[in-house]
């Protein structure tokens, strides 16, 4: 697509190429101690994206995280399960019915974000 417009009385033309957006999560630090994490869907890369944002939050000494799942279209159950493992304290996991139970898998953020 080509867009033509005038800036400071000079005609400008910009060509834009539309591409698929592959990100499934977005995060930012809202204040000194609050991070915001929005997850658009649970896809193949969601766990890695979430881990990267959590690492950024941890390095910035964020102590509160808002997790926004509004408008989340769903996705892979396995991606959701991997995501839950990094958020839950060691020993707990959730299944597709939302039931929590005990397991012996650990997570690198044990208790930091709970």
Total DSSP helices: 2
Q: What is the number of strand segments?
A: 7
Q: From the alpha-carbon coordinates, what is the Rg to the nearest angstrom?
A: 19 Å
Structural class: alpha+beta
Q: Name the helix and strand elements from N-terminus to C-terminus, one letter apiece.
A: EEEEHEHEE
Taking the sheet with the most strands, its summary is: 3 strands, mixed
Low-pLDDT residue intervals, each spanning 5 or more residues: 96-114
Helix content: 10-25%
Strand arrangement within the widest β-sheet reads 3-4-5
Q: Into which percentage range does the β-strand content fall? A: 25-35%
- Head-to-tail CA distance between termini: 46 Å
Indicate the overall shape: elongated
Average pLDDT rating? 75
What descriptors fit this protein?
114 residues, alpha+beta, 3-stranded mixed beta sheet, two-stranded antiparallel ribbon, 2 helices, disordered C terminus
């Amino acid at each position: 697509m080509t867009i033509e417009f005038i800036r400071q009385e000079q005609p400008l033309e910009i060509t834009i190429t539309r591409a698929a957006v592959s990100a499934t999560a977005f995060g930012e630090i809202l204040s000194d101690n609050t991070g915001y994490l929005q997850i658009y869907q649970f896809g193949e890369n969601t766990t890695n994206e979430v881990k990267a944002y959590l690492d950024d939050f941890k390095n910035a000494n964020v102590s509160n995280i808002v997790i926004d799942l509004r408008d989340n279209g769903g996705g892979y159950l396995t991606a959701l399960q991997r995501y839950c493992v990094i958020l839950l304290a060691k020993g707990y996991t959730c299944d597709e019915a939302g039931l929590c139970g005990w397991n012996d898998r650990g997570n690198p953020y044990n208790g930091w974000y709970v």
